[in-house]
Amino acid sequence: MRNEKKQFLVLGLGRFGASVAESLCKLGHEVLAVDADEQLVEDVAPFVTQAVQADATDEDALESLGVQNFDAAIVSIGSNIRDSILVSVLCKEMGVPFVAAKAVDELHAKVLRKVGVDRVIFPERDMGQRFAKSLVAPNILELVELSDDYEIAEVLAPAAWCGKTLAEINVRRNYGVSVIAIRRGEGLIASPGADEMPQKDDVLVLMGKTKDIDRIQ
Question: CATH fold of 126-216, please?
Fold first, then answer.
């Protein structure tokens, strides 16, 4: 999904849903936040484009929201698996082009994928994995999983790489990853050339297989 202004529908305003809704709005997108709980709707209302109290499992209620006009829907109903699956199905049937849904376990995720959900999210599991990795690999500063096998990670430049050109290090051949950018102080070197030399305190933005990035730490 590109960076132009988009319209997002967030269904379920627990801690995860509310955080997603507020974050999307801060990034400059239009967000309609929906929950059956009036208090949750009131809490998030100041931080989103619009907040509505409605039962997302009610097909008529969803239709009245015009869900088919949104670029994406985030189904963050995690506690009630039946409702989560039902709302996801309704969103897909109504023509929402991209549906992401929160899952509580692998069985829940499997069913969500079967009904056509485009992306399944495990907030607690993913955060736990990131925290664990930060403990054992403190030089990995930020991590974005692209799939089960690939990721983009911000890694402090290894001392052995400093003072050598990327061509001399030959990162792709020796480590199987690509250096897609270098953060140096307040600046960013995008698509660094082969003659670029990592320096002490540089942050390398790497893309590759998880196992290969883990080796670099």
Answer: Alpha-Beta Plaits (3.30.70)
Nearest-10 crossing angle of helices 106-114, 81-93: 20
- Tell me the mean pLDDT in the region 190-207: 91
Residues of the chain with CATH 3.40.50.720: 7-121
Lowest mean pLDDT among 81-85, 129-133, 144-148, 198-202: 129-133
Task: Using pLDDT thresholds of 50, 70 and 90, give the confidence band for residue 12.
Answer: very high
The whole-number pLDDT of residue 216 equals: 81
Q: Boundaries of CATH 3.30.70.1450 in the chain?
A: 126-216
CATH node for 7-121: 3.40.50.720
